[in-house]
Amino acid sequence: MKWRRSRDNGEQRAQPEPVREPVAPVRAAAVSPVRQRFHERLTAADAEPEPSARARAMLAGVHEFLALAEDAEILAERAVLLARAGEIGAATPDAGVRLVSRLRGWFGLDEKLARQVLGAWMARPEAASFGETWSAASELMTTSEPVGSWVTTAVLADNSVVSATFRELARTHLVEMVDADFGTHEFTGSASPVWQVLYALGPATRPEWFVLFGDRAAGRGEEAEAARRYELADRFGGGTQARERLKKLHDIGAHQRLLNGATAADALRGPGTPSPYRQLLIGTAAVMTGRPASAALSEAGRDGDENVRRAAGFVSALDRLRDGDEQTARTRLRGFLADTTVADGPGANARLVLGALDGDDELLTAGARMLLARYREHWPTHSMVAPATVLTAVSRTDSGLLTELIGDADAGSPGAGGDLDAMRVATARTYLAEAARAALFSRFEETDRLLTQARQLLAGAEGDAANLLRDTATRIADTIDRMRAKTSVERPLDRLAFAALREDGTVQPWTPTALRLWQDYDAATSTGQRTVTRAAPHKAAGAAPHDVTGIVPLEPSEAGPCDATGTGPRTLHHLAIAEHARAYQLEIAGDDTAFEHWRRAIGYWARLGADDRFWDDLRTRLTATAGDTTPEEVAIAVDEARGELPAQVLDPHVTLVLQLRKDDLPRARAHLDLIRTAAFAPADIDRARARLAREAGAGIRRLVREGDLDRALAEVRAWIDIDSDNIPLAEQALDVGIETAETEHRRSDREWAERARPVLERIADLVDPMRARLGLTSRQLSTGRRPATGESDRMAFAAKLARHEFWHGTSLLFSTYDRLKRNPYDDRTGFRRAAGHLNTALMLGLPALAPYDKARELLVASGKLERSIQGHALGFL
Fold this sequence. Notes:
Region (Disordered): 1-25
Structural class: mainly alpha
Strand content: under 5%
């Protein structure tokens, strides 16, 4: 007999080690051949001396039996199968977990056996089969809540039962699984085995995990998905951490867009109020494109940190240089360089620009040396001065540095000239790629300038690469000559319409005649009838040569005939641009007929976005003309442009709603109606309306921080009046109440509840219609269903409503208690109402964090105090 310690307590007790009952020989006549074979396999397995080999043999016999036997035969061997499953789990835990999960289908779940095999697995998991075993373990935890709680408690306990290997494997597998299929897991309940184990591994709240999953998406460059996850974290209580991550994400995204050539302020602003860094980028883009930059740079310099302020000073110097004020630019550049903490990149370019202004080869050489040290062979792409100018200056001052700049060859060797040619060829190739892009967008003057620069760099260069680039420059020049002459427009109607766009020698974004021609053609091809001539619309005030919308119709290289489906995609594109420009001019004039044109323009853009022919044609044209760009890169760029089209069309209306809501509410509502009824996908419309909520939230939070609660509540009411069924807007109202209550409560005096209660009651009145619409009133919750997976907006609103209800109930409880202490005959119905709010909060689901984890205690206290004000003092918060 062997002795072992009892698991019941620490006393040493004599207990016999359990001895497995030997498999009795079974007579062939007593059982079926399948059962006979099963017992023979088990007997053979028992003869194996090595434990793991014995377990593998048993496992093979069990699986063979389960595959061949009838249900009645399996049920007859229940005791043997469960016993052997425990033995297999002790020797090979992964196989044991999977076997117990399989046996569950016949025998139900033996919770003691499940805990046994799961405990062994958590102590000795196999990395190679972890994913498969987790699926089986998840089924066991889902089947039995006690088993799931036991696993969670074991992981949370951080004891020797659960190995460090298991924790590492579990975290890696579950994080990757949720990350890969985030939409499936984001709103699953806290009873889900995935979230149970993740909470136990830490961090312990859903918002913190949403932030981590947002970080993973951001690390892959998936800006939209990362933003969605950070916003979810914020909506579920992630607070400052989520908002800071979101701000940084939008900063990085704006920086990347600027690097990729986006210079419009709307493309760089991002959602909400732009951060100082994005203001810096907006100012930088303005300098690059010749737009006013001082306002954005001033805000960046005023609100940014030290690095942003320095960079803003550098860009402002470039702004002065662009405006022709060289003296001020020099003064600011010298002041910028006087700061010894300036980073190498901006410091190098400041030296290059100042050196080019002063004709100072030494300063140019110093800047080139810094760029080379920081960026190595990529220095030309980071230089603000033309590489040819830099090379010329360096060649006069430092031949050794010139060798480094153009390659590893010795400056005095015969190969040096070839290396310099290679540098010039590489720079010229960049200019030609930019020239081809400019030509695609009909920016002919920019194309001419870039072609001239490329030809200057190629002058005197020898070799096949230089000759090939010269031929490319000639082809680009020939292409823009044909585009200028409009000989490429094949359809007669497009020829007439483009001719009608030219007034006084200038191409307009729209004219009445061109718009009529394209509208008639669209009507005829959409209905299958011949074109009908109508009276031309009145053109108010004339179209400016450079319309403020920045939209100029592209003259296509081919029109593409209309097919059986209706208007050709190129014509639809021209029609969308013309209607958009017409609507914009009427909007500027305050003309209410603008909305008819806005509606048409949005419809045309939506049709264009859904027309595969247009995007396929655009891919073909870009692939043919963008020489150094691969077809895959072109396809990615076109797909991104197609995906961004709804936002590009709807964002101006969001901006107009924001601008008009205070001074012209009917017009603001009309623009909101354009957004709500747009023919884009519901998700695109929801994103536009979510931007309204973010903008509203930024202003409301600022007022709350400033302590102006009345104005904050007025802002909330005004926004809800404009967009009454916008769920994120209603969440902003709840945020005001939650932040107010949390702020008052942190003051730690007895009057906090009396101060917070009126604000919470006013907000409750504001969101009551939304609660009723979502089925989240206390009556609806008690008789209907709770928010479920797939109802993301309803769940997010419910999560914030739960916290608001908690504070509403708590403030009622404390303020009623304090009043009754002063006057025992005062109204005590506040206790009953407090209990109602706290009960609703618990039904909705509160986070397991202080002070929300005290909700049940407060609910009990409310019930007791309703019956009698004699009781203990409240000390829960």
